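Hi R.,

As promised on Friday, here is the backbone we talked about, encoded as structure tokens. Could you run it through your design pipeline when you get a chance and send me back a sequence?
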């Protein structure tokens, strides 16, 4: 039963045709399904044909009951049975050609594949219904040109919804977004408010707002999406096999029925948004609006990307009040229409392999949009995207050593495309626990730290969802061996306890790649192909080591798993300090003091739980190291025994690079004495030079600590401690205090480095059995330790068989862990 039969009114079919062929197809459909109906053809632009206004405002007494029926032609890609990646890329190209609807090709397409042209009809509505909607949504008056534009937009949206039923939710796209925003009932109030704030006339504010919205708004279209996928597919489809958290995505599908989703992935590669988009497309999720910097808006990326859902935001807009208002209004409109969003909360790709500190700007505008719309909510979705390897990591490592970042452009795109043709392992996409933004804001409480707490919750979720890759654990083992090369069996002996520990913590690890010789050898071979690992095969068996000059690249892969080892590393240092205590000292109090001190030193490098959760995590960590610790009253000797019997020590490998970087920054600040730091870029350049010198002098332990990003983070810590410049109006006495506090921080960091050196000597001595050097080398290590450090503790020799054997105990006399 048609709406005309139900209401007794006339029918007007509003068609959207892009060619004469489509007009003919639609006319035949009208003649068959709506004979006698009036046909009004919309144009592709924003102009509304006068015939639509005449149809809506005619003088017939039944006009209010006139039924509006929207319809358009959708070109459907023919199915193919061709298998494999070639089929997928060819199918994308075919889809793009058909859905781009090149007008001269329409007659041939309709003749060769008449079944490819489908007429989709949107839900019909009476003029009276549309008038009610227009008044409610835009405070408009029937009979105006605004009403005709409103009806045209509603017709387009109705056809979009009908098209999605045919093609799937992946093609949910916005139409005439800027026009919808500027014609909404709330827009005049926004203009008036901004006029009062800026002092500009309302017409000028309205014009600037519309320009800003036009600049940023993504104009998605199914043909452009398919063309973008066809063009960008080679940038990721050949490089990685993709493993996806299917259960997490199914949970999101249910949430998306009621709320917009805001995807907040980790950012390690330019390919992140392309890969995630393909994962979601293949599972019939609507296309995300991806918010990114306009540095990637060069041709053809900008023109095509904007039509495929990329929202290009200015990298900097300072005090531009109107631009900020435009972002807030745009985000709020997208949420209200339940379009999903995506951005990268770190603000840029990680240069070190671990999560960067979050940027709060876009989150601030999203929260502002919710505050203006009390009935709306958004679901934040932390997403972990992690790779076995990345082609671009070498360039990012060079930046850390002081190299300049190369600007993006066509040449850059060509080189990236060329590199991505080689397969380099697996990419893993895992979904962390999603949560309501409104609930998270309420949990965070009022105050200046509210957004920071929400952002940290996102980052903590990403870290929890991030698996430990075979690449991360293999590089952890090889970097821990320093300049020594290891046999395959030796690498296995070092990696196995790490894998055991992570599995006990519930962290996903690739068992096949770590537990078998074949899997581990494949991991090392892939690292060798990338130049990260050197394999020497001229002896009795192959040995593996980090290639010269590639320590930053290896550290990038290692750092992806460090957050899983952080609590263990900090507890080891705290136990070491507790083992140095006197018999009558309160060991628990000493342990917590050391843990809190380390937490404060690392608070700009890693994401920590709340204080109460942190204590609970450390208790669970101690349960893993010593399950029986609750059953006895421990003394210093017991604590030293716990460290001696632990199957692995990770603190040097986890923490040393970061505290080495802090030592360089602390040393350079101390050299300033009373002076304030006035120019950050030059200071960081100075740190790079001094860091290289200290590395050559063996005052630093490892090459990857010479890093611009690590120095920048250490400088933020110094600023947080009030060590960068004196307070305004400081007296001479306060300036002296600044110098002393800078030196005190340098001494504190040096003390932690000494703790890590002691643990490192113990771990190396314990590994002598694994490395096959025997007791003679262990004696040498112990002698070197004795001359370098004297803790004042007695040395005892115990021949009981324990992990590490005699080699470990020969080195223990000076590490503070002998019983």
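Update: got your reply. Pasting your designed sequence below so it's all in one thread:
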């Amino acid at each position: 039963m048609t709406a005309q039969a139900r209401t007794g009114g006339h029918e007007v079919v509003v068609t959207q045709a892009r060619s004469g062929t489509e007009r003919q197809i639609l006319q035949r459909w009208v003649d068959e399904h709506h004979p006698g109906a009036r046909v009004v053809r919309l144009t592709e632009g924003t102009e509304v044909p006068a015939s639509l206004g005449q149809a809506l405002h005619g003088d017939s007494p039944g006009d209010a009951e006139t039924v509006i029926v929207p319809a358009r032609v959708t070109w459907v890609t023919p199915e193919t049975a061709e298998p494999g990646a070639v089929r997928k890329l060819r199918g994308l190209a075919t889809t793009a050609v058909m859905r781009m609807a090149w007008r001269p090709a329409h007659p041939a397409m309709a003749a060769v594949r008449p079944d490819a042209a489908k007429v989709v009809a949107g839900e019909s509505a009476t003029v009276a219904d549309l008038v009610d909607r227009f008044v409610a949504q835009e405070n408009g008056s029937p009979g105006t040109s605004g009403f005709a534009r409103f009806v045209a937009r509603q017709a387009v949206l109705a056809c979009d919804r009908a098209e999605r039923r045919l093609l799937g939710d992946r093609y949910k796209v916005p139409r005439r977004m800027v026009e919808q925003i500027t014609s909404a009932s709330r827009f005049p109030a926004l203009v008036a408010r901004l006029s009062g704030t800026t002092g500009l006339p309302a017409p000028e504010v309205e014009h600037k707002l519309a320009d800003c919205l036009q600049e940023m708004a993504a104009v998605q279209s199914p043909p452009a999406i398919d063309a973008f996928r066809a063009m960008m597919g080679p940038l990721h489809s050949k490089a990685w096999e993709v493993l996806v958290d299917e259960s997490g995505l199914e949970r999101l599908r249910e949430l998306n029925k009621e709320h917009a989703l805001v995807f907040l992935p980790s950012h390690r590669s330019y390919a992140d948004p392309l890969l995630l988009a393909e994962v979601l497309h293949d599972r019939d999720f609507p296309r995300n609006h991806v918010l990114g910097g306009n540095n990637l808006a060069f041709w053809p990326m900008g023109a095509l990307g904007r039509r495929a859902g990329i929202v290009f935001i200015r990298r900097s807009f300072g005090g531009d009040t109107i631009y900020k208002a435009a972002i807030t209004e745009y985000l709020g409109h997208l949420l209200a229409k339940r379009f999903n969003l995506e951005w990268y909360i770190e603000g840029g790709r990680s240069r070190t392999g671990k999560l960067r500190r979050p940027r709060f700007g876009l989150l601030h505008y999203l929260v502002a949009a919710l505050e203006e719309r009390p009935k709306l909510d958004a679901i934040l979705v932390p997403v972990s995207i992690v790779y076995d390897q990345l082609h671009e990591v070498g360039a990012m490592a060079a930046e850390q050593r002081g190299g300049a970042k190369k600007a993006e452009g066509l040449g850059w795109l060509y080189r990236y495309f060329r590199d991505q043709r080689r397969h380099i392992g697996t990419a893993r996409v895992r979904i962390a626990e999603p949560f309501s933004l409104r609930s998270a804001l309420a949990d965070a409480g009022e105050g200046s730290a509210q957004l920071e707490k929400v952002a940290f919750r996102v980052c903590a979720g990403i870290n929890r969802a991030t698996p430990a890759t075979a690449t991360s654990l293999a590089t952890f083992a090889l970097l821990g061996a320093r300049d020594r090369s290891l046999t395959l069996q030796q690498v296995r002996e070092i990696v196995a306890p790490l894998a055991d520990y992570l599995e006990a913590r519930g962290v996903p690890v690739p068992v096949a790649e770590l537990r078998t010789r074949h899997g581990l050898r494949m991991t090392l071979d892939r690292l060798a192909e990338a130049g990260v690992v050197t394999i020497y095969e001229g002896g009795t068996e192959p040995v593996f080591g980090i290639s010269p000059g590639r320590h930053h690249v290896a550290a990038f892969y290692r750092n992806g798993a460090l957050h899983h080892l952080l609590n263990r590393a900090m507890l080891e240092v705290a136990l070491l300090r507790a083992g140095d205590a006197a018999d009558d000292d309160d060991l628990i109090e000493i342990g917590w003091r050391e843990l809190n001190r380390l937490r404060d030193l690392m608070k700009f490098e890693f994401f920590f739980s709340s204080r109460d959760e942190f204590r609970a995590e450390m208790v669970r960590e101690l349960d893993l190291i010593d399950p029986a610790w609750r059953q006895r009253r421990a003394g210093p000797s017991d604590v030293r025994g716990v460290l001696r019997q632990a199957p692995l020590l990770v603190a040097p490998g986890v923490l040393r690079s970061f505290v080495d970087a802090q030592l360089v920054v602390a040393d350079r600040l101390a050299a300033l004495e009373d002076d304030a730091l006035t120019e950050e870029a030059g200071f960081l350049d100075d740190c790079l030079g001094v860091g290289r010198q200290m590395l050559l002098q063996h005052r630093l332990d490892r090459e990857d600590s010479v890093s611009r990003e690590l120095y920048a983070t250490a400088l933020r810590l110094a600023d947080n401690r009030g060590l960068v410049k004196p307070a305004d109006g400081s007296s001479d006495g306060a300036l002296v205090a600044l110098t002393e506090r800078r030196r005190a921080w340098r001494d504190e960091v040096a003390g932690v480095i000494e703790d890590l050196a002691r643990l490192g000597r113990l771990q190396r001595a314990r590994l002598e059995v694994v490395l096959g050097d025997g007791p003679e080398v262990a004696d040498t290590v112990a002698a070197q330790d004795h001359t370098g450090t004297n803790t004042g503790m007695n040395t005892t020799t115990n021949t009981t068989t324990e992990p590490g054997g005699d080699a470990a105990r020969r080195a223990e006399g000076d590490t503070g862990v002998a019983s």
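One thing I noticed while checking it: The two ends are 90 Å apart (CA to CA).

Thanks again,
M.
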